[in-house]
Amino acid sequence: MSRPMVLRSPRRGSLRDDLALGGRITAMRLGGLAFALRGDPVARLMHKPWRLDPYPTYAAIRATGGLARSRVGISAVGTHALCEQVLRDRRFGVRLADGRPPFAPEDTETKRSGARPSEPETSLLEPVDLSLLGLDAPDHTRLRRLAAPAFAPRRLEQYRGVAEQITTGLLDDAARRGRFDLVTDLAAPLPITVIARLLGIPTVDADRFARWGRALATALDGVRSVAHAHELARTTAEARVLFTELVERRRADPGEDVVSQFVGALDAGQMSLDELVTLAQLLLVAGFETTTNLVGNAVRALQATPGQWEALVADPSLAAGAVEETLRYDPPVQLTARIAHEDTELAGAEFRRDWGVLVLVAAAGRDPEAHPDPDRFDLRREQTTPHLAFSGGAHYCLGAALARLEGEVALRLLAQRMPGLRAAGRVVPKTATILRGPRTFPVAA
Ligand code: HEM
């Protein structure tokens, strides 16, 4: 059965909405900064200068038992055991207990079990619908089952050759110049080209696609300003047009790409067009900046820790180990969040229904109870406790195998082709709270 190709537009804000939003953002930022200055660890994770190096704050949270209560309206957990517990506990979800999204106004209609979302759920505070990441069961379970086969590790192996070919081309260009930027010349174009291939995006749209990916990734940290909210709403609207056209094209001329596979589910009435389009958009957001940061953080740690880059050059088969160690030591996604669906207890403290908790997976990676000598980067480390960099439980990263594959290819070829690689200027970090990695990283081959 084929469904009508109709998409509804995200809700538009009026001037009154803009003023209210602007006031709310300013109040939240100023309030948060005041708490950060007074030592509130959760507020510190959201504000400079503390968020540029969050690891001392994570250590402070672990030192007080791993649960931080905060005045900013959300708590945080920072030990491996507590993070894993929250991620796996079915009493925690990503929506409010009644099924509304976290920032929904009180009067928003509840989406209950079995009711299929037919309309993008965006507001100015949450202008990007993050598909699976913003859904609880049963919608999450249904959509994830439909999406998962396309990400089976065996199926993704076909992208190894693609990743090698792209990386070789990028390194050829970089080698000719001698000095280049690790992020803009390798770590960013590799994943964006792979996702474009995966989704079957035509080459002509690749630049626009990369720009959207970067813009939408900023939504993960929340809306910074009214202008930011409008930029995100505009980007989402543009991306939806491209993905809708893509669905039409794949329907007429199916290929091996992921969108062609999803069109089957759309035509069988198992997912709506809105769901397909937001899922494709999530793949763009989830698979781009994250993998860019993985490569950037890995090279940074390998170069900053004596002997590590040399060890990789001597034995490039250690690249997979370097990827795992980076994911533990300095993960691209530092934290995620969950909401209690009922009154509950965590680490001896009471948690009210609808209370939020940040799950600091980066703090879990430095927990000495889980990882001996955790502040030491060692690409040969035996990962006795699996890290939580790809989360855990129902929302475990769907693209983990692809991210590992791309990271391994990038590091292995880099070590083989450029054994004398060295930093050639100041590394400028991104300033986000959730996604961590270098913005620019000048290097010489
Ligand atoms: C190093 C790179 C990556 C890291 C560190 C990473 C990390 C994560 C994390 C932490 C989550 C779960 C968030 C939560 O529990 O709330 C997640 C979910 C997800 N990731 Fe990744 N990711 C990476 C790469 C990718 C790639 C390459 C793709 C696909 C192209 C991808 C697709 C997804 C999807 C679809 C989800 C949502 C799963 C769900 O909600 O059921 N990720 N990722």
From TrEMBL:
The keyword Iron applies. This is Cytochrome P450. The keyword Heme applies. Gene3D superfamilies: Cytochrome P450 (1.10.630.10). InterPro entries: Cyt_P450 (IPR001128), Cyt_P450_B (IPR002397), Cyt_P450_CS (IPR017972), Cyt_P450_sf (IPR036396). CDD domains: CYP164-like. Residues 97-123 are annotated as: Disordered. It comes from Actinomycetospora endophytica. Keywords: Heme, Iron, Metal-binding, Monooxygenase, Oxidoreductase. PROSITE patterns: CYTOCHROME_P450 (PS00086). Belongs to the cytochrome P450 family.
